[in-house]
Specification:
The complex is a heterodimer of chains A (about 100) and B (about 200). With about 100 residues, chain A is mainly α. Chain A has helices spanning about 5-10, 25-45, 50-75. In chain A, α1 (about 5-10) crosses α2 and α2 packs antiparallel against α3 (about 50-75). Chain A starts with 5 loop residues before the first helix and ends in a 24-residue tail after the last helix. Chain B is mainly α and about 200 residues long. Chain B is about 60% helix and about 0% strand. Chain B is built from 8 helices and 2 strands. Chain B has helices at about 20-25, 25-30, 35-45, 50-80, 85-90, 95-100, 125-150, 155-180, and strands at about 190, 190-195. Chain B has a two-stranded antiparallel sheet. Classes of the chains: A mainly alpha (about 100), B mainly alpha (about 200). The interface of A and B includes residues 95 and 97 of A.
Protein backbone atom coordinates (compact mmCIF):
# COMPACT_ATOMS: atom_id res chain seq x y z
CA UNK A 1 0.00 0.00 0.00
CA UNK A 2 1.44 3.32 -1.02
CA UNK A 3 2.06 5.94 1.64
CA UNK A 4 0.10 9.05 0.64
CA UNK A 5 2.59 11.34 2.40
CA UNK A 6 5.49 9.95 0.39
CA UNK A 7 6.05 13.12 -1.58
CA UNK A 8 6.05 15.36 1.50
CA UNK A 9 8.37 12.99 3.31
CA UNK A 10 10.76 13.13 0.40
CA UNK A 11 10.78 16.92 0.55
CA UNK A 12 11.19 17.03 4.31
CA UNK A 13 13.66 14.17 4.77
CA UNK A 14 16.73 16.25 3.89
CA UNK A 15 18.65 18.34 6.36
CA UNK A 16 17.23 21.81 6.72
CA UNK A 17 19.25 24.02 4.40
CA UNK A 18 19.40 27.77 4.62
CA UNK A 19 18.26 28.90 1.18
CA UNK A 20 16.46 32.23 1.19
CA UNK A 21 13.03 31.60 -0.34
CA UNK A 22 12.85 32.62 -3.99
CA UNK A 23 16.64 32.26 -4.39
CA UNK A 24 18.33 30.14 -7.06
CA UNK A 25 19.26 27.48 -4.48
CA UNK A 26 15.72 27.39 -3.05
CA UNK A 27 14.16 26.90 -6.49
CA UNK A 28 16.73 24.20 -7.35
CA UNK A 29 15.82 22.41 -4.13
CA UNK A 30 12.16 22.45 -5.21
CA UNK A 31 13.13 21.05 -8.63
CA UNK A 32 15.18 18.32 -6.94
CA UNK A 33 12.32 17.43 -4.58
CA UNK A 34 9.77 17.29 -7.43
CA UNK A 35 12.07 15.18 -9.63
CA UNK A 36 12.84 12.82 -6.76
CA UNK A 37 9.14 12.43 -5.89
CA UNK A 38 8.36 11.48 -9.52
CA UNK A 39 11.32 9.10 -9.71
CA UNK A 40 10.50 7.38 -6.41
CA UNK A 41 6.93 6.81 -7.65
CA UNK A 42 8.40 5.42 -10.89
CA UNK A 43 10.21 2.73 -8.89
CA UNK A 44 7.06 1.98 -6.90
CA UNK A 45 5.02 1.63 -10.11
CA UNK A 46 7.61 -0.80 -11.52
CA UNK A 47 6.63 -3.31 -8.84
CA UNK A 48 2.96 -2.17 -8.57
CA UNK A 49 1.99 -1.58 -12.22
CA UNK A 50 -1.80 -1.60 -11.54
CA UNK A 51 -1.88 0.75 -8.52
CA UNK A 52 -4.12 3.54 -9.82
CA UNK A 53 -3.62 5.75 -6.74
CA UNK A 54 0.14 5.66 -7.29
CA UNK A 55 -0.44 6.49 -10.96
CA UNK A 56 -2.45 9.58 -10.01
CA UNK A 57 0.37 10.71 -7.71
CA UNK A 58 2.97 9.98 -10.41
CA UNK A 59 1.05 12.00 -13.01
CA UNK A 60 0.80 14.96 -10.65
CA UNK A 61 4.49 14.65 -9.71
CA UNK A 62 5.58 14.64 -13.37
CA UNK A 63 3.51 17.77 -14.05
CA UNK A 64 5.02 19.53 -11.05
CA UNK A 65 8.52 18.46 -12.09
CA UNK A 66 8.04 19.83 -15.63
CA UNK A 67 6.61 23.17 -14.41
CA UNK A 68 9.35 23.73 -11.82
CA UNK A 69 12.11 22.72 -14.24
CA UNK A 70 10.81 25.21 -16.81
CA UNK A 71 10.61 27.94 -14.17
CA UNK A 72 14.19 27.26 -13.03
CA UNK A 73 15.62 27.13 -16.56
CA UNK A 74 13.91 30.39 -17.54
CA UNK A 75 15.46 32.19 -14.56
CA UNK A 76 18.86 30.52 -14.15
CA UNK A 77 19.86 28.60 -17.29
CA UNK A 78 19.64 25.11 -18.79
CA UNK A 79 19.46 21.87 -16.78
CA UNK A 80 19.62 19.78 -19.98
CA UNK A 81 21.50 20.50 -23.20
CA UNK A 82 18.19 20.49 -25.11
CA UNK A 83 17.06 23.49 -23.07
CA UNK A 84 20.17 25.39 -24.20
CA UNK A 85 18.98 25.34 -27.83
CA UNK A 86 19.02 28.86 -29.28
CA UNK A 87 21.54 30.25 -26.77
CA UNK A 88 24.54 32.12 -28.17
CA UNK A 89 27.15 31.68 -26.91
CA UNK A 90 26.18 28.08 -26.08
CA UNK A 91 25.07 28.21 -22.43
CA UNK A 92 25.29 24.45 -21.78
CA UNK A 93 29.03 24.52 -20.99
CA UNK A 94 28.74 27.40 -18.52
CA UNK A 95 30.02 26.84 -14.96
CA UNK A 96 29.16 26.11 -12.24
CA UNK A 97 28.73 22.41 -13.02
CA UNK A 98 26.90 20.14 -10.58
CA UNK A 99 30.03 19.08 -8.67
CA UNK A 100 31.23 22.63 -8.04
CA UNK B 1 22.43 13.45 -12.56
CA UNK B 2 21.25 10.97 -15.19
CA UNK B 3 17.94 9.69 -16.47
CA UNK B 4 17.32 6.74 -18.77
CA UNK B 5 15.84 6.83 -22.28
CA UNK B 6 14.34 3.59 -23.59
CA UNK B 7 16.17 3.66 -26.92
CA UNK B 8 19.62 2.80 -28.24
CA UNK B 9 21.76 5.55 -29.73
CA UNK B 10 21.95 3.47 -32.96
CA UNK B 11 19.85 0.36 -33.73
CA UNK B 12 21.11 -3.18 -32.97
CA UNK B 13 19.08 -5.88 -34.77
CA UNK B 14 21.06 -9.13 -35.12
CA UNK B 15 19.33 -12.20 -36.62
CA UNK B 16 22.01 -14.92 -36.30
CA UNK B 17 23.66 -16.17 -33.11
CA UNK B 18 27.46 -16.24 -33.14
CA UNK B 19 29.03 -16.93 -29.70
CA UNK B 20 32.58 -16.85 -31.09
CA UNK B 21 32.07 -13.29 -32.34
CA UNK B 22 30.37 -12.34 -29.05
CA UNK B 23 33.56 -13.33 -27.23
CA UNK B 24 35.60 -10.92 -29.37
CA UNK B 25 33.11 -8.07 -29.06
CA UNK B 26 32.72 -8.36 -25.27
CA UNK B 27 36.16 -6.76 -25.03
CA UNK B 28 34.49 -3.47 -25.94
CA UNK B 29 32.18 -4.01 -22.94
CA UNK B 30 34.67 -4.75 -20.16
CA UNK B 31 38.08 -4.89 -21.83
CA UNK B 32 41.12 -2.55 -21.59
CA UNK B 33 39.94 -0.20 -24.38
CA UNK B 34 36.23 -0.79 -23.88
CA UNK B 35 33.27 1.50 -23.38
CA UNK B 36 33.02 0.95 -19.60
CA UNK B 37 36.64 2.03 -19.16
CA UNK B 38 36.04 5.02 -21.43
CA UNK B 39 32.97 6.18 -19.53
CA UNK B 40 34.55 5.78 -16.06
CA UNK B 41 37.72 7.51 -17.26
CA UNK B 42 35.97 10.63 -18.58
CA UNK B 43 33.32 10.87 -15.86
CA UNK B 44 36.06 10.62 -13.19
CA UNK B 45 38.47 13.01 -14.88
CA UNK B 46 35.81 15.70 -15.40
CA UNK B 47 35.88 16.67 -11.69
CA UNK B 48 39.38 18.12 -12.03
CA UNK B 49 38.92 19.79 -15.42
CA UNK B 50 39.85 23.50 -15.27
CA UNK B 51 37.61 25.16 -17.90
CA UNK B 52 34.00 25.17 -19.12
CA UNK B 53 34.99 23.56 -22.43
CA UNK B 54 36.97 20.69 -20.87
CA UNK B 55 34.32 20.03 -18.18
CA UNK B 56 31.54 19.91 -20.79
CA UNK B 57 33.38 17.70 -23.26
CA UNK B 58 34.33 15.08 -20.62
CA UNK B 59 30.86 15.17 -19.07
CA UNK B 60 29.06 14.70 -22.37
CA UNK B 61 31.41 12.14 -23.96
CA UNK B 62 31.52 10.18 -20.67
CA UNK B 63 27.74 10.06 -20.83
CA UNK B 64 27.68 8.98 -24.49
CA UNK B 65 30.08 6.12 -23.64
CA UNK B 66 27.39 4.69 -21.34
CA UNK B 67 25.08 4.57 -24.37
CA UNK B 68 27.83 2.75 -26.27
CA UNK B 69 28.25 0.29 -23.39
CA UNK B 70 24.54 -0.42 -23.74
CA UNK B 71 24.87 -1.01 -27.50
CA UNK B 72 27.78 -3.44 -27.00
CA UNK B 73 25.75 -5.24 -24.31
CA UNK B 74 22.84 -5.51 -26.76
CA UNK B 75 25.14 -6.90 -29.50
CA UNK B 76 26.64 -9.53 -27.14
CA UNK B 77 23.16 -10.46 -25.87
CA UNK B 78 21.74 -10.87 -29.37
CA UNK B 79 24.76 -12.92 -30.52
CA UNK B 80 24.40 -15.39 -27.61
CA UNK B 81 20.64 -15.91 -27.25
CA UNK B 82 18.99 -19.27 -28.09
CA UNK B 83 22.34 -21.12 -28.13
CA UNK B 84 22.39 -24.89 -28.64
CA UNK B 85 24.77 -27.09 -26.62
CA UNK B 86 26.65 -27.87 -29.84
CA UNK B 87 27.16 -24.18 -30.56
CA UNK B 88 28.44 -23.58 -27.01
CA UNK B 89 31.01 -26.37 -27.29
CA UNK B 90 32.01 -26.06 -30.98
CA UNK B 91 32.41 -22.27 -31.01
CA UNK B 92 34.71 -22.08 -27.98
CA UNK B 93 32.05 -20.47 -25.77
CA UNK B 94 32.24 -23.18 -23.08
CA UNK B 95 34.59 -21.43 -20.65
CA UNK B 96 32.49 -18.24 -20.64
CA UNK B 97 29.22 -20.21 -20.51
CA UNK B 98 30.25 -22.17 -17.41
CA UNK B 99 30.85 -18.97 -15.44
CA UNK B 100 28.19 -16.63 -16.84
CA UNK B 101 25.59 -18.68 -18.83
CA UNK B 102 24.10 -16.27 -21.39
CA UNK B 103 24.61 -13.23 -19.16
CA UNK B 104 26.65 -10.19 -20.17
CA UNK B 105 29.69 -9.86 -17.88
CA UNK B 106 32.32 -7.07 -18.14
CA UNK B 107 35.48 -8.85 -19.20
CA UNK B 108 38.04 -8.69 -21.99
CA UNK B 109 38.10 -11.01 -25.03
CA UNK B 110 40.70 -13.05 -23.17
CA UNK B 111 38.33 -13.45 -20.17
CA UNK B 112 40.04 -10.98 -17.81
CA UNK B 113 37.42 -9.29 -15.58
CA UNK B 114 37.09 -5.49 -15.81
CA UNK B 115 39.49 -3.51 -13.64
CA UNK B 116 39.85 0.21 -12.90
CA UNK B 117 43.57 -0.31 -13.58
CA UNK B 118 42.62 0.22 -17.26
CA UNK B 119 42.09 3.93 -16.58
CA UNK B 120 43.89 6.89 -15.06
CA UNK B 121 42.55 10.06 -13.50
CA UNK B 122 45.65 12.20 -13.05
CA UNK B 123 44.30 15.61 -12.09
CA UNK B 124 46.49 17.17 -14.78
CA UNK B 125 44.51 18.44 -17.74
CA UNK B 126 47.29 17.87 -20.31
CA UNK B 127 47.99 14.33 -19.08
CA UNK B 128 44.29 13.44 -18.88
CA UNK B 129 43.27 14.81 -22.29
CA UNK B 130 46.30 13.19 -23.93
CA UNK B 131 45.33 9.83 -22.38
CA UNK B 132 41.78 10.37 -23.63
CA UNK B 133 42.93 10.95 -27.21
CA UNK B 134 45.04 7.76 -27.06
CA UNK B 135 42.07 5.85 -25.56
CA UNK B 136 39.85 6.85 -28.49
CA UNK B 137 42.46 5.65 -31.00
CA UNK B 138 42.92 2.35 -29.14
CA UNK B 139 39.15 1.81 -29.16
CA UNK B 140 39.05 2.72 -32.87
CA UNK B 141 41.81 0.15 -33.54
CA UNK B 142 39.88 -2.49 -31.56
CA UNK B 143 36.79 -1.81 -33.69
CA UNK B 144 38.95 -2.14 -36.83
CA UNK B 145 40.12 -5.55 -35.55
CA UNK B 146 36.53 -6.60 -34.87
CA UNK B 147 35.50 -5.53 -38.39
CA UNK B 148 38.36 -7.67 -39.81
CA UNK B 149 37.04 -10.83 -38.13
CA UNK B 150 33.31 -10.17 -38.62
CA UNK B 151 31.35 -10.66 -41.85
CA UNK B 152 27.78 -10.40 -40.51
CA UNK B 153 26.31 -7.12 -41.87
CA UNK B 154 23.88 -6.94 -38.91
CA UNK B 155 26.90 -6.70 -36.57
CA UNK B 156 29.19 -4.66 -38.84
CA UNK B 157 26.64 -1.85 -39.15
CA UNK B 158 26.45 -0.81 -35.45
CA UNK B 159 30.19 -1.55 -35.01
CA UNK B 160 30.99 0.88 -37.85
CA UNK B 161 28.84 3.51 -36.13
CA UNK B 162 30.74 3.00 -32.84
CA UNK B 163 34.08 3.15 -34.68
CA UNK B 164 33.10 6.47 -36.23
CA UNK B 165 32.19 7.91 -32.81
CA UNK B 166 35.75 7.13 -31.61
CA UNK B 167 37.06 9.28 -34.47
CA UNK B 168 34.69 12.15 -33.59
CA UNK B 169 35.62 11.96 -29.89
CA UNK B 170 39.34 12.03 -30.78
CA UNK B 171 38.66 15.19 -32.79
CA UNK B 172 36.74 16.90 -29.93
CA UNK B 173 39.42 15.93 -27.33
CA UNK B 174 42.08 17.34 -29.66
CA UNK B 175 40.19 20.63 -29.85
CA UNK B 176 39.80 20.68 -26.04
CA UNK B 177 43.54 20.09 -25.62
CA UNK B 178 44.39 22.91 -28.04
CA UNK B 179 41.96 25.22 -26.22
CA UNK B 180 43.81 24.52 -22.95
CA UNK B 181 47.30 24.98 -24.38
CA UNK B 182 46.22 28.22 -26.10
CA UNK B 183 45.23 29.82 -22.79
CA UNK B 184 47.08 32.94 -21.73
CA UNK B 185 50.45 31.98 -20.20
CA UNK B 186 49.82 34.02 -17.06
CA UNK B 187 46.56 32.22 -16.31
CA UNK B 188 46.73 29.48 -13.71
CA UNK B 189 44.50 26.43 -13.87
CA UNK B 190 44.64 23.83 -11.13
CA UNK B 191 47.91 25.38 -10.02
CA UNK B 192 49.45 24.75 -13.42
CA UNK B 193 50.86 27.66 -15.38
CA UNK B 194 50.79 27.11 -19.13
CA UNK B 195 53.85 28.37 -20.96
Amino acid sequence: MINCDMKNEAVQSGEKQTCPSGSKDALMREVQAACFAAYDLQLYLNTHPTDSRAMMMYTAAVQRKKALTEEYEKAYGPITADSAAGTMPWQWIKSPWTWE
Amino acid sequence: MWSYEKKLQYPVKIKNTNPKLAQFIISQYGGPDGELAASLRYLSQRFSMPTDITKAILNDIGTEELAHLEMIGAIVHQLTRNLTTDQIVDQGFGAYYVDHSNAVYPSSAAGVPFTAAYIQSKGDVIADLTEDMAAEQKARATYDNILRVCDDPDVRDPIKFLRQREVVHFQRFGEALRHVTDLSPCKKYNGVTFK
